[in-house]
Design brief:
Elements (H helix, E strand, L loop, with lengths): L1 H33 L17 E11 L5 E4 L8 E5 L4 E8 L3 E6 L2 E6 L3 E2 L4 H120 L12
Antiparallel strand pairs: 1-4, 1-7, 2-3, 4-5, 5-6
Length: about 250
C-alpha cells in the first residue's frame, strides 16, 4: 500500500523539476531582450488631452450619500482641489465623454464624476428648506393673525363710531325738524306781525283822525259852553235888573 501511494508522488515531483529547468533559458533570453540599451533616449509620457463639451449652466447638488473630491482634471489621479460635502451646490458648465463633469462654485472650479451630481437639493436641504418655509409660514400666519386682530379692533371701533354717528345724525335730524318747525312758525309769526303792523298802522291813522275829530268837537263844546255861560250871565243880569226887591226900612225910619 505505501509503495503504491509513493510512486505517483515521485513522478509528479520529477516532472515539476524538469519543467523548471526547461523554463530557465527562456526567462534568461527574455530578460536579455528587455534590457534597455544605454544610448537609447527616454521618452516622456504625453499629457492626456480631455475633450470637455460645454453645456448650458445649470444648478447641481452633490449627492447626500458621500463626500466628493473636486479635482483639477477629469481623472482619479488628478490633484484634489477641494473636498465638497453632501448637498454642496454647484453649477454644471461642461461634460466629458468618460462621465466627468466640470463644475464651479464661487471662485472654485474643478472636475468630479457626473454620478455624484443630482438636479435637486438633497433630502436634508429639502427638509431644512421645508422647515424654513414652515417657520416663515408660521411667522406670516402670526403676522396675519395680528393684523386680522388689529383689523377686527378697528372694525369694532368703526362700528362704535358709526353707531355714535347714527345717534348724532338722529339727534341732528330731530333738531333740524325742530328748526324747520320753528322756521315755519317764525314765518307764520312774521306774517302775523306784518298783518298786525298793517292793522296797527291803520288804527294809528284812525286814531289820528279820531283825535282830530275829538279836538274839533272839544273846541265846539268849549265854544258852546262859553256861549251858554255868557247867556246865563246875561240872563242873570237881566233878571237882577228887573226883578229887584224893595229895600226894607230901618228902625230909624219908623
Amino acid at each position: 500500500m505505501l509503495r503504491c501511494n509513493a510512486l505517483p508522488v515521485a513522478i509528479t515531483l520529477f516532472l515539476s523539476i524538469g519543467l523548471a529547468y526547461a523554463e530557465e533559458p527562456n526567462t534568461a533570453s527574455s530578460n536579455s531582450n528587455s534590457t534597455t540599451p544605454v544610448n537609447q533616449p527616454l521618452v516622456k509620457p504625453q499629457q492626456p488631452v480631455w475633450e470637455v463639451k460645454e453645456v448650458a449652466p445649470s444648478k447641481q447638488w452633490i449627492s447626500d450619500r458621500l463626500e466628493a473630491p473636486l479635482r483639477s482634471c477629469p481623472g482619479d489621479r488628478c490633484k484634489v482641489v477641494k473636498i465638497v460635502k453632501p448637498g454642496f451646490e454647484t453649477t454644471l458648465i461642461g461634460l466629458t465623454n468618460d462621465g466627468w463633469a466640470l463644475v464651479t462654485s464661487g471662485d472654485v472650479k474643478g472636475y468630479l464624476p457626473k454620478r455624484y451630481l443630482q438636479s435637486s437639493p438633497v433630502a436634508s436641504q429639502q427638509l431644512e428648506g421645508a422647515q424654513r418655509q414652515s417657520l416663515e409660514a408660521m411667522q406670516a400666519h402670526g403676522a396675519l393673525k395680528t393684523e386680522m386682530d388689529a383689523l377686527k379692533n378697528r372694525a369694532e371701533t368703526a362700528e362704535t363710531e358709526v353707531a355714535s354717528l347714527r345717534k348724532g345724525n338722529y339727534e341732528l335730524k330731530q333738531e333740524l325738524d325742530y328748526v324747520k318747525t320753528l322756521s315755519t312758525q317764525t314765518l307764520v309769526v312774521n306774517e302775523d306781525n306784518r298783518r298786525l303792523k298793517t292793522e296797527i298802522e291803520a288804527l294809528r291813522q284812525r286814531n289820528d283822525i279820531l283825535e282830530q275829530e275829538s279836538g274839533d268837537v272839544e273846541g265846539k263844546n268849549q265854544r258852546a259852553w262859553v256861549m251858554v255861560g255868557a247867556g246865563i250871565l246875561f240872563m242873570g243880569w237881566i233878571i237882577g235888573r228887573f226883578a229887584r226887591t224893595p229895600r226894607r226900612r230901618g228902625w230909624n225910619e219908623i
